[in-house]
Amino acid sequence: MNLPLVISVIVGSRQIQASITKVQVEAGSLSSWWVVTAQWSDPRTGQIVTFHSHHLKFPPKQHPGEPITVFIDPYDPTRYRMEV
Fold first, then answer.
1. Which residues of 16-52 are buried (b: 16+ CB within 10 A; e: fewer)?
2. Cα–Cα distances in Å, from 30 out to 3, 26, 27, 35, 73?
3. Among 4, 45, 64, 81, which is least packed by CB within 10 angstroms?
4. Closest Cα to residue 51, out of 29, 22, 25?
5. Looking at the whole model, is its pTM more than 0.90?
6. Are 7 and 79 in contact (CB under 8 A)?
7. Distance between CA 78 and CA 65 in Å, rounded?
8. Full domain range(s) for residue 33
9. pLDDT tens profile 33-67
10. What's the confidence (pLDDT) of residue 4?
11. Is residue 7 over pLDDT 50?
């Protein structure tokens, strides 16, 4: 799985509302963590963009089907920060 490139919220970033599609636990050899997955449809292109949260130590409060705020680089939506 590709980890998201985390960016700070900077002038010019765009705030969008994505829809949570999955909340799952993932495990490594020494620990486990939670990951939130969300999708958003770019209204300009119709392209579906998928976002993954950073590794969370505790189960998130959000659930599948709920909206979640994501800050994206308007020129490159693969650069983002999800508000979990």
1. bebebeebeeeeeeeeeebbbbbebeeeeeeeebebb
2. 19, 11, 8, 17, 34
3. 45
4. 22
5. no
6. yes
7. 21
8. 5-82
9. 999 999 999 998 999 999 999 999 999 999 999 99
10. 52
11. no
